[in-house]
Amino acid sequence: MLKTDPAAISSTEFFDRSRARLGFDVPPGLIDPNIIPKSGDQGTDRMLEIIAREQPVRPAAVLIPVVDHPQPTILLTQRAAHLNDHAGQISFPGGKIDMIDASPLDAALREAEEEIGLDPAQVKLGEALPPTRTFVTNYVVHPFVGYVPHSGELDLQPNPTEVETVLTFSLELLREGYEMRRLVRRGVPIHTPTYEVEGHLIWGATARILADFLSHLQTGA
Fold this sequence. Notes:
It contains five helices and eleven strands. With 221 residues, the chain is an alpha+beta fold. The longest helix has 13 residues, at 42-54. Strands 1, 2, 3, 4, 5, 6, 7 and 8 form an eight-stranded mixed sheet that branches. A three-stranded antiparallel sheet has the order 9-10-11. The mean pLDDT is 80. The chain has a single domain, classed as Nucleoside Triphosphate Pyrophosphohydrolase, CATH 3.90.79.
């Protein structure tokens, strides 16, 4: 249970708290196929074990852009409908880590610039969360928190080949849309966090990353 509602904190407190509670080390699970991050749900963990045996590890990185409004907002994207992987889903900007990337963080920043035109120079922080695996595709996703100081509207340029639209949600809207749901994947029942906001359903790895991030900001976490 939350001792302090993350949706109610100021922008300054939000970023101070994230700096104090999130690290920056690259986890071994990003490239080791034998390390499967635990979700806290037996069904989800079982599914991830099954997928890990069937698919090679595919390292990826995403950026969690948190915009410095009076009440901080989180930026996400709706992926283009024609994409082969996760078409139409809500996600954080990011993608697979390429050989040209000096680090997972560099990959997250590069992808964010390519997908939505977010200038890496605007991103002031880079705290890291533990990796999360995706269902089916077995991406091992390393999330980074990016602080975007800005007043007014961001001048973003979504890449239509990858992104349908850019979405920005306040912490309050996300909190109100949170729900644990029971889903069935390949006959395995799982309980997983979801967020339904303004007609958009956030689920899967993105929802698990978001829930993990917000849990790190709780007082006493």
